[in-house]
Structures are given as structure tokens and as C-alpha cells.
Amino acid sequence: MDMYEVLTHPWWPIYDHDSRVLLLGTFPSPRSRSEGFYFGNPQNLFWTALADSLGVPRLPATASVADKTALLLDNHVALWDVLHSCRIEGAADASIRDPVPNRFSELIADSRVNTIFTTGRTATSLFNRLAASEAKMRAVYLPSSSPANRATQSRSDFSLLWGTLGRVVRGEVVSAAGMKVADRFTIDNRGIPSLMLMERAASAVVDTLVGAENDFDLGCVLCVCGTGNNGGDGLALARLLHQQGIRAEALLIGNLDHLSRECRQQLTWAQAAGVAVSFAGLEELAALANRGELIPTPKTIIDALFGIGLARPLTGAYRQAVEAINDMRSAGARVLAVDIPSGISADTGEVLGAAVYADSTLTFAYNKLGMLFEPGRSHAGKLVVADIGVRLPD
Description:
Blueprint: E1 5-8, E2 21-25, H1 30-35, H2 46-54, H3 65-74, E3 77-81, E4 83-88, E5 97-101, H4 105-109, E6 115-119, H5 121-130, H6 132-135, E7 139-142, H7 155-169, E8 173-174, H8 176-189, H9 194-210, E9 221-225, H10 229-243, E10 248-253, H11 261-272, E11 276-280, H12 282-290, E12 300-304, H13 316-330, E13 334-338, E14 360-364, E15 367-368, H14 376-380, E16 382-386
Parallel strand pairs: 2-3, 2-6, 6-7, 8-15, 9-10, 9-12, 10-11, 12-13, 13-14, 14-16
Antiparallel strand pairs: 1-4, 4-5
Helix pairs in contact: 2-7, 9-10, 10-11, 12-13
């Protein structure tokens, strides 16, 4: 006898124009379906965990659907589930077959959602496998609030991870998409050009390098730069250090045809200032890495290869570049990462193929979610957040 039911999601998502984060379960349980709303099992900790994360009073056990909806919308949280339909036995996520995801792009376009959280490993895996491409965001894992999860989940870890949702809502920490919103708002509404923000970022790194409490050897500094804006930060830094009489060189890695507008301008300024800039295209880079000649022997390496926009695993020559930086660190060089260690997901803390191990990371404006979670937290080393004038919209 086939015990699997073929089910279609019974409800619309809960959200409005001001929703900032999207919180997703896997699929409504039988108890939730009988109660007519999300997370209807009174033994489920969802509504308690959400209130605690947001720092608001918990709902009473008799809370109505209207009360729960108000809790969500008043605190800028959208709620839905990953799956539109599936075959499932009872409430067991492990039994799910033939999953079909909901479509999230319309919700995201109609709201201010820039971070997606999923409750439980199954929801996170299904979303990132089936829906992340359409949503243009990866989901951040939160522990399941189901009663079945309590035996294996420590209370402190549960509270710590759920607490990140409230921190995003309050603007204390951002995802990659959230940081892009802040950058665009600052440029468009506060009138601060992107190149000026880049100069401020580079100046903040200089202050960190020369600070008495930081013990970086500035006898030889190598800025390893990519072709995007993170690489532009590294080129600006090399120029500022060079102008202070510090021996700073730059290695620009990648296809020069792919330089961002800001990175191209910083390259022009760095060369005009007399900075020694070396270039390594991907084929040349692979050959250099294979011969162990990718990087000279600096005292300090600046990781400005990839920033928060990296979304897919590093392979080939780019992975070899990251591994070469780590080899130099093992040989005695110290590494400072600009904004985030290259290869770490800014949303989840995952290692995307390979990732730089930094002694210190200087991130800009807001901490990034990926450096709150392992392994991103360990890769970041000592973390400092620098205020460069970037602000989220109110």
C-alpha cells in the first residue's frame, strides 16, 4: 500500500512591501493543515523562537491567525514554505518525494526581502538545490523548530542561530543581497559615488595595517586582486600604501576584459602612482601555480580576490590562487582579507570550493552573515567592521 500522499501547498505566502527577510519551512505538516496556518502544532517552537529572535513578546498559546500574521508583518518578516507540491508520508520531511518548489521571484520583487532563512536541513537543502537560482539567493540554515529536533539540538546553538534572523531585521548584519541594497541606497540617495566608497574602504584597510595593535609586517605587502570591485579595493590599497613609502605591489588575476568600471579606474590610478602591478590571466595563472611561482615571498598578503558576490565554487586556476595564498600563510606570511575571505559564502559561511584563511578580516559597513557561521567564522580570523558611510534604507 502506498502511504505517500500527493499534496499541493494550501496557502499564499504572508508578506507585504516592507518585508525584509523571508522565512521558509519545508511543507505544512498534517497538524498545520488541520489548524489552517503555518506551524500549527502547539509543541513546535517556531512562534516562540521567532519572537525571541525579534526581541518582542511571545504570543500566547491562544494566539489567532491574525495575531501571528501581525507578528510577522509588524516585524518585516515574510513566511512561506519551500515546496509547492510533493509526495510525503505524514509529517516526515525525510519521506518527501517528487518535490516541486514554490516560485519566489515575484515575492522578492514585490518586497524588500534580501535574505532567506530556511528552518531545518531538509528545507535548506531543497531550497538551495531547487529554488536558489530562480530566487537569486541562497538560503541561510536555521535549526528546525519541530519537537523531533529537540533531542539533537543544543539550546545555546538553537538560540544563537535563530538570533541571526533578528539581527538581519534590525540591520545589525547583512547578507550579500542586503549589502548590495545598502551600497545602492548610499550611492543613489546619499550621493556618495562608488569610487569614493572604494577610497574610504582602502583607507580603512591602511589604518588597520599600520595600527599599533595589529602587528603586520609592512616590509613587503602583496595585494592579490580580482577583476571586480573587491579587486578595486586592493588596487586602491596598494596605491595608498605606496604613497606612504611602503613597498606594496599588486597581482591582478583574471581576464582584463572583465574588469569592473571601478576596478579599471583604480588600476589606472595605481599604475600612474608608480605601483608595480603584475598580471596573471587564467592560463598563465595555472602555469605559475603549478610551478609554485604564483606569489613572491611577501610579509603581508592582502586578499582582495573575491568579495561578497561570489556564489559558485572556485575551480581550476582561481582555486589554485586561493590555495597559493594559504601556502604562503603557512610559510609565515600574514593575511588580511578585504571584506570577506575569498571563497567564503557571504550568506551561509560555506567554503565555495576553496577559501582563504585570513589572520584578520576588515569588512565594511556591516558584518556579513557568512562570518557568523562556521566555517566562515574560522576563515575570517580577527574580524573588524569599518564604518565607511554605507547605510541601509530605513
